Amino acid sequence: MSGRVYARSVLRIGKSTLAVSLPKAWAKARGLRPGDVLFVAETPDGALLIRTSKPGEERRSKALLEIKEGEKGAIERLLIALYEAGYDVIRVVGKPSLSEEARREIRRVLRRLSGLEIIEESYEYMLLQCFLNPKALNVERTLERMEAIVRLMLQDLRRCALEREPSLAKPIAERDDDLDRFFFLLCRQVNLALRVPSIAPELGLEDSTLAMPVLSYGKVLERMGDVLASMAIYVSSTHRLPSREDLSVMEEGFRRAVRTFKLGDEASMRAVSRIYDEYASRGDICQDVLKMLMCNFLSLCLDVIEVYAEMKAIRWPLLG
User: Fold this and answer.
1) Where are the domains of the chain?
2) Which of 313, 316, 308, 312 is nearest to 220 (CA)?
């Protein structure tokens, strides 16, 4: 857990009651007043977690996004950041007004953010609300969906090679958009688990400390999609097709990488390293854009091993 650390003395109130004062800035930022009720939960390591709402209680966190004239390019980046951070309601305000160009950009970005919709709109603003409960689709299911999309992208490339038809690679870019959408959802789930550790099990995480390795794995899957989309663009523009043999190597590398992360399979771990080393040692890679992209994909399969090692280290039993 990160953030500011406050030092407070333990005070005695009456004969048997101990108390600790709340930092003024913290209380003011949350609108607390004398008589308000706070909820205190004990974490597994003995720390006390102070909340302004009950664990699991729905709380609509709100954010204000001001868009000035000429800032259209920042809309996507800022909206995605607020979505990933877990905000449920986002009010987008234009200065002096919200242009039609900005509105079109907002609608385009919303297609990449699961559950975020426009609920109110006027000349000056748009009000967005997320209706998706991150706990309804747990982290494991989100990762499984991302893995399935990467497999489909590989299958699309294989179909191009089998039918010798480069135009069949075009739908791969659309699948990459789907992959991004699930990655943004994963970021939202992970941020929620870190912000409220007590609900991590409801999100499919045995402990909130595993949130970062899970996010790292999701990021690797997202980057795999980017590489496959780049391959699809290259195939469509040059009409150069990958060989079936190279595609088989990529498919095997990906299959083994997934088994490593999910099952800790040591044979698969060794296989990923061997597949990458053998492919990367070929002398024709540097002169071939397509093969360089394939090698990049296999290096990402290798990154999965590092993520698995990180997760294993977190689970490692502590010495007594």
Assistant:
1) 11-51, 62-133, 135-315
2) 308
CA distance 81 to 184: 9
Alpha helices in 196-288 (DSSP H): 211-238, 244-263, 266-280
C-alpha–C-alpha distance, residues 25 and 22, integer Å? 9
Residue 196 near residue 124 (C-beta atoms within 8 A): no
CA distance 125 to 93: 4
The whole-angstrom separation of Cα 178 and Cα 111 is: 9
CATH topology of domain 135-315: Methane Monooxygenase Hydroxylase; Chain G, domain 1 (1.20.58)
Q: How far apart are CA 8 and CA 211, in angstroms?
A: 30
Maximum separation of any 2 CA atoms in the chain, in Å? 85
pTM: 0.77
CA terminus-to-terminus distance, the chain: 23
C-alpha separations of 159 from 235, 240, 268, 314 in Å? 12, 14, 26, 40
Write down the pLDDT at residue 174.
85
pLDDT digits (tens, 9 = 90+) for 168-219: 888 888 899 999 999 999 999 998 888 888 888 888 888 888 899 999 999 9
Closest Cα to residue 215, out of 181, 190, 193, 192? 190
Pick 62-133's CATH classification: 2.40.50, 3.40.50, 3.30.110, 3.30.450. Answer: 3.30.110
How big, in percent rounded to 5, are the helix, strand and coil portions of the chain?
60, 10, 30
Helix (H, G, I), strand (E, B) or coil at 25: helix
CA distances for 36 relative to 14, 32, 138, 185, 196, angstroms: 21, 6, 33, 33, 20
Q: Where are the beta strands (DSSP E) in 27-150?
A: 39-42, 48-51, 62-68, 89-95, 116-121, 125-130
Residue range 283-309: mean pLDDT, rounded:
92
Report yes or no: 135 and 150 within 8 Å, Cβ to Cβ: no
